[in-house]
Specification:
heterodimer, A: 63 residues, B: 165 residues, alpha/beta, two-stranded antiparallel sheet
């Protein structure tokens, strides 16, 4: 699975637990969904979207 | 969704560019491992996590992050570790996110959450970490990869999640 995220952030942004778990679930879904070895799956989210959600979460947390 | 043919680069031509700058650092694999099917549902499976993030328990020998050709060793990271008990020795990726929440690069707490949620059956006692800056891919494959594979196998996992940093 390929994520178009910044290096060092392949499981998302800080404190965004749901996104972090969503990425793991998507990666593990390849076990059943991949049709051949070497398949590449593009995670359907941009880095900008991930950062935006992270900022909103942190804003809600008051940090 | 498969977005490339088997074994093809996501960005054709990029590897040649990297190889011009770091000769021999990029290799093409044509003998891909056959696709394996999980023998049991994921909710019953034991998972091992392998990462190039350079995460290690505090007090263990730090990775040699300044060696010109890299460090070909790995560390065991107990899957029950608290993030506060771990540290990162790696210079080749931004760690500003991981320093605030280690789970962005080494999702040890999220994997435990997914066990609690019964999405994953269980975790191996140890996870595994090494540094991704290794400029000799043949040595990486011949030594480090073989050693990690043996160590992972010894933990009796059903599935392994591999993640770069």
């Amino acid at each position: 699975m390929f994520l178009p995220f910044m290096m060092g952030h392949h499981f998302g942004v800080p404190f965004h637990k749901e996104l972090q778990k969503k990425i793991i679930r998507a990666a593990l879904s390849r076990i059943t969904d991949a049709t051949e070895s070497g398949d590449i799956y593009l995670f359907p989210m941009t880095w900008a979207q991930a950062r935006r959600e992270g900022k909103e979460l942190e804003s809600e947390r008051g940090s | 969704m498969a977005i490339s043919e088997q074994g093809k680069e996501l960005r054709p031509g990029l590897w040649e560019t990297v190889n011009e700058r770091y000769p021999g650092s990029m290799i093409t694999k044509t003998d891909l491992v056959p696709l394996a099917k999980l023998s049991k549902p994921l909710c019953e499976a034991r998972l091992a996590f392998v990462s190039t993030a350079g995460v290690q328990p505090k007090g263990t020998l730090p990775f040699d992050t300044v060696h010109p050709v890299g460090d070909y060793s790995f560390r065991r990271v107990p899957s029950a570790s608290k993030p506060a008990d771990l540290e990162i020795h790696q210079l080749k990726y931004p760690t500003f996110g991981a320093k605030r929440d280690l789970n962005v690069i080494f999702p040890i707490e999220r994997l435990r959450d997914l066990v609690t949620e019964k999405f994953i059956g269980s975790l191996t006692e140890n996870f595994f970490s090494f540094i991704g800056y290794n400029m000799d891919p043949e040595r990486l494959e011949r030594n480090l990869a073989e050693e990690i594979a043996a160590a992972v196998e010894a933990e009796n996992p059903d599935v392994a999640l591999l993640a770069p940093a």
